[in-house]
Design goal:
It contains 13 helices and ten strands. By secondary structure, the chain is α/β, with parallel strands linked by helices. The protein binds iron/sulfur cluster. The site of iron/sulfur cluster has 13 residues, from helix 10.
Length: about 375
């Protein structure tokens, strides 16, 4: 990414924050942080995901590579990062490595969220060769029992082995990229002891860049009555959802969505081909949703926003949760991913260990103190 683009993205983040604070619904900047869905097919049936729980009504399919190239052609001057994930497992898309190569070649960082169950040796080599910037392995559980109960259809030993193989290959190639995070949802049903958790994490010592423990979402009303896992509940949102001021979701079929959580395409801003990303960003539907949030009635338009962790999380230094990821992303362009680590630690300090992402790096001792702090 050129220095000029890095500077523009930082400025863009500041404009997003200023527009948010000023309550603007029609924006003078374009989103720098976008989710793109290579596929909404998935190979697992996870209990905490609407797709796995059989609650997705949207048609399933894979993104046409031509549509992906069309998106990159449009967004590459102003997009900083694309996250390849939304309602499915991206490793199922046969053209995933080409997508990564195309976007990285146009100066856009690619982040992949994956359950890693399909990350065999060939896929590992393909991803490393494609030059992906960052990756997070969604691995919810510290032991075979809790993991396989949550991630139905996955095999604990096989998946751990695949993640470790990927990380060892990266190390053997002396690569810093991709920045790799092990992301664990705290579902409140993992009875592993602190010692077992520490033992599990020690397997990743010297290989993984960071380990985050995250709080799951209720996905609006979808899991609100669900006894299968624990999630945070919020009396009220902490303000308008900041995501709508700097992020956007692009589904496999070209539907432009206000948010990556909208797996059912409940609130479609337009269809690519009939609209552009930039037009949808400031089109009537998106402006109406921002206005609804500013007026405190988002559920009139998007019931999915009910009890959302993004809108419910407290602001930190006035910055809403929905804007933090894109602002941090702009800063990592300049200062590297080490800054993200520091930012998460700072956020936890401010929130007394209850930030939605909590780092765990030093094995059992760190895990024990984290448990104590909650
Ligand atoms: S509140 Fe949650 S569901 Fe609604 S737009 Fe924001 S992130 Fe998406």
């Amino acid at each position: 990414m050129s220095p000029g683009k890095k500077a523009r993205i930082l400025l863009n983040g500041l404009r997003a924050f200023a527009s948010y604070r000023l309550g603007k619904s029609r924006l003078g900047h374009l989103p720098s942080y976008l989710w793109i869905e290579p596929t909404n097919h998935c190979n697992l049936k996870c209990i905490m995901c609407p797709s796995g729980a059989g609650r997705v009504r949207a048609e399933r399919g894979d993104m046409d590579p031509a549509l992906f190239r069309q998106i990159i052609d449009e967004i590459h001057p102003w997009a900083s990062t694309i996250i390849l994930a939304m309602g499915g497992e991206s490793l199922l898309h046969p053209g995933l490595s080409d997508m990564i190569r195309t976007a990285e070649g146009r100066g856009i960082k690619v982040h992949l969220n994956t359950n890693a169950t399909l990350l065999d040796e060939n896929k590992t080599e393909e991803l490393l060769a494609a030059g992906i910037s960052s990756i997070s392995f969604a691995f919810d559980g510290f032991g075979k029992g809790p993991y396989e109960r949550a991630r139905r259809g996955a095999d604990f030993g096989l998946t751990v082995g695949r993640i470790l193989h990927f990380l060892r290959r990266r190390k053997a190639m002396r690569r810093k990229k991709p920045y790799a995070v092990l992301s664990i949802l705290d579902l409140g049903r993992d009875d592993s002891s602190p010692e077992d958790k520490g033992k599990f994490l020690r397997a990743f010592d010297g290989l993984i860049d960071d380990v985050h423990v995250r709080s799951p979402n209720s996905w609006g009303p979808v899991f609100l009555e669900c006894p299968d896992f624990r999630f945070d509940t919020f009396d009220r949102p902490s303000g308008p959802c900041g995501r709508l001021w700097n992020t956007l979701g692009l589904a496999w079929n070209g539907d432009v969505l206000p948010c990556s959580f909208d797996m059912n395409h409940d609130y479609v801003l337009g269809r690519l081909g009939r609209t552009t990303v930039a037009e949808a960003w400031n089109g009537p539907a998106m402006v109406a949703l921002r206005k609804a949030w500013l007026e405190g009635r988002p559920l009139d338009l998007l019931p999915l926003c009910r009890n959302c962790t993004v809108a419910g999380s407290p602001r930190i230094l006035g910055v809403p949760a929905g804007l933090r990821a894109s602002l941090a992303d702009g800063l990592t362009n300049v200062f590297g991913y080490g800054l993200e680590r520091k930012a998460i630690r700072f956020a936890n300090l401010m929130r007394r260990g209850r930030f939605t992402a909590r780092p765990v790096r030093d094995g059992a001792a760190a895990w024990t103190s984290l448990e104590d702090s909650r």
